[in-house]
Design a protein that fits this description.
By secondary structure, this protein is α/β, with parallel strands linked by helices. It has 16 helices and 12 strands. A hairpin with a 2-residue loop joins strand 2 and strand 3. The longest helix is centred in the last third of the chain and has 32 residues. The structure holds flavin mononucleotide. The site of flavin mononucleotide has 24 residues, from helix 2 and helix 16.
């Protein structure tokens, strides 16, 4: 077993162990991938302020996200096709999150279903929903999340249509993978992945096949997906979803202060400042740059979380210092899952926790809840002086 010291190590192993089609699906942004790149490079522009001779014994990273106790201000973001990176991937990731004491958010486009994850975990998880036209399917999804005891619904609002990711088109991405000479040749080099995949029944979109009208096989799913995303979505429709779900509600995919205000007005409990990991509007601001203007607009009215670009505990610390109550990770835990299954997700969480804890201490804080903007050195005009 190689010595893993950072998220980059897990990424290298993920690349080696998962089929190219699925690694590429994870490691891509839309079009030129500018936003995808800047999500991480913008974090690097922010520096941390070292303090010394401050008592750093007895530290704590524990806090609350939407009123729920967490071991650190981190949540596992919803990631479609997680169960293709490693067999039963959603269950493995949810188990690792639950043992670590951080929330796991299941994607609508997961391979393991809501019911599968609920049956294999003991703590409530969060359920992400895409905004689809089919009212019956949407009601059904919220009802199923309620029946599974989900402790929050997360409505993703930045995907009314899909940003193009070139690699997915070139690789012919599908779940389960289409068998072509190229995909077979590649999968033949991923033997442990293939053996585990053969041992599970979960190889389709578990929340959709058999639940959406007329979708009983993967072929009809392709048509369904293309036709179902609601391009006419507006805030009134999101108000209807609010009525379908009376538990804690998080709105994910906000980058503009005006949209953050709308999210407050529909009665959300939290928002996630996110550009979908650079997978939707290429050319959009990185999330960390978009955060401060949003904090100024709604920071005292609603809990603000952030994702996109977090690859270390230092990134979590920077997001928290800028005002985010929580930082969600997507690729960072998927690398771990693709590398080593549940143990890899645990490793990703351990790496991030250690980096967060140590960096927080070296900035002179013992409690993550006291961390503030004072620990940061941010380039002037970081949020941008755009016209
Ligand atoms: C492979 C992949 C699939 C994703 N699928 C979903 C999804 O099904 N629903 C959703 O709301 N967000 C989805 N996202 C976005 C993540 O929830 C999150 O916003 C993003 O990964 C954060 O950026 P990071 O990967 O740089 O941490 C996906 C991201 C990736 C990388």
């Amino acid at each position: 077993m190689p010595t893993i010291t950072n998220i980059e190590d897990l990424k290298r192993l993920h690349r080696r162990r998962a089929p190219k089609m699925f690694y590429d699906y994870c490691e891509s942004g839309s079009w030129s991938e500018q936003t995808f790149r800047e999500n991480t490079s913008d974090f690097d522009q922010i520096r941390l302020r070292q303090r010394v001779a401050i008592d750093m014994a007895n530290r704590s990273t524990a806090t609350q996200l939407i009123g729920q106790d967490v071991a650190m201000p981190v949540a596992l973001a919803p990631v479609g096709l997680t169960g293709m990176q490693n067999a039963d991937g959603e269950i493995k990731a949810a188990k690792a999150a639950e043992k670590f004491g951080v929330p796991y958010c299941l994607s609508t486009m997961s391979i393991c279903s809501i019911e599968d994850v609920a049956a294999n975990t003991s703590k409530p998880f969060w359920m992400q929903v895409y905004t689809l036209k089919d009212d019956d399917f949407m009601r059904g999804l919220f009802d199923r999340a309620k029946a599974a005891n989900c402790s929050a619904a997360v409505i993703t609002v930045d995907l009314q249509l899909l940003g193009q990711r070139h690699k997915d088109l070139k690789n012919g991405l599908s779940a389960p993978p289409k068998l072509t000479p190229k995909s077979i040749a590649n999968m033949a080099t991923k033997v442990p992945w293939g053996l585990e995949m053969l041992q599970t029944k979960r190889r389709f979109f578990g929340n959709i096949v058999g639940h959406a009208k007329g979708v009983n096989d993967p072929a009809s799913l392709t048509t369904w997906t293309a036709e179902s995303f609601d391009q006419s979505l507006n805030w009134d429709r999101i108000r209807e979803f609010r009525k379908m779900w009376n538990g804690p509600l998080i709105i994910k995919g906000i980058l503009d202060p005006r949209d953050a205000i709308e999210a407050c007005n529909v009665g959300a409990d939290a928002i996630v400042v996110s550009n979908h990991g650079g997978r939707q509007l290429d050319g959009a601001l990185s999330s960390i740059r978009a955060l401060e203007p949003i904090m100024d607009a709604v920071g005292d009215k609603i809990e603000v979380h952030l994702d996109s670009g977090i690859r270390s505990g230092q990134d979590v610390l920077k997001a928290v210092a800028m005002g985010a109550k929580g930082a969600w990770i997507g690729r960072a835990y998927i690398y771990g899952l693709g590398a080593m299954g549940e143990a890899g997700v645990t490793k990703a969480l351990e790496v991030i926790h250690k980096e967060l804890d140590t960096s927080m201490a070296l900035c002179g804080h013992r409690d993550v809840n006291t961390v503030d903007r004072d620990i940061l050195m941010v380039p002037k005009n970081f949020s941008g002086d755009w016209s």
